[in-house]
Amino acid sequence: MRSSKRSDPFARISSDGRGVVRAADWSDSDGYYPAHHPDRCMTELLIDALREAEAVRYGEFELSHGGTSDYYVDKYIFETDPTCLRLIAEAFSERLDGTTLAGVALGAVPLVAVTSAETDTPYVIVRKQQKAYGTGNLIEGELDEGEEVVVLEDIATTGQSAIDAVEALREAGAVVNRVLVVVDRQEGAREHLAEHDIELESLVTAEELLAADRD
Question: How far apart are CA 95 and CA 156, in angstroms?
């Protein structure tokens, strides 16, 4: 079981013991800096957090679209790690401007929830298929006709799940032109989404993530 006592890259206990504060000018023996330290960018901080959480694994893996890979980014590791979640929420928030958020079930739900809390922005959840019971909704949450929405995703490989979510939102009357993703595996998702007039923006690319492990 992962320890809850792991180092936090941007939180410290204040000297008077009154609580956790975000400092702006320290570094610790682990080499971590707070999110806004001028010598570290958010990408580096997030890569460090993903590596410490052991979310990046090497071997032979089968991917959801049927291909294989010699590395795997385990979204359920970083989506259940509080340090990763805080950094992801902060990084997403820097790219948002108050637009309603949407998360693709199941994987992106923790990401959209924590980002919603960080930005005080409402969100909806897009199911992969319509419920066969209850309300029968495909989209959970309040969504108005013509409302602008940004989709949050965990990992982009081909981008098909993001495209499906965008199309569902558009059919419901939303205006959707952007998808923000934590990790872009750089296997065609950006180009695939562009064919549907969707801009893909990633917090980390596979190239950046793998280069960090080679250093």
Answer: 18
Tokens of 74: 């385990």
Q: Of 155, 154, 153, 158, which Cα lies nearest the Cα of 178?
A: 153
Report if pTM > 0.70.
yes
- Cβ atoms of residues 117 and 69 within 8 Å: no
Binding-site positions read 127-128, 131, 153-161, 185
Residue numbers in the known binding site for orotate are 157, 185
Distances (CA, A) of 162 to 78, 104, 118, 174: 19, 7, 22, 15
Distance (Å, whole) CA 204 – CA 201: 9
Q: Which domains does the chain have, with CATH numbers?
A: 83-214 (3.40.50.2020)
* Binding-site residue set for 5-phospho-alpha-D-ribose 1-diphosphate: 127-128, 131, 153-161
Cis peptide before 143 (omega within 30 of 0): no
> What is d(CA 105, CA 198) in angstroms, rounded to the nearest whole number?
19
DSSP type of residue 101? E
For 127-170, the pLDDT digits (tens) are 988 776 666 799 999 999 999 999 999 999 999 999 999 999 99
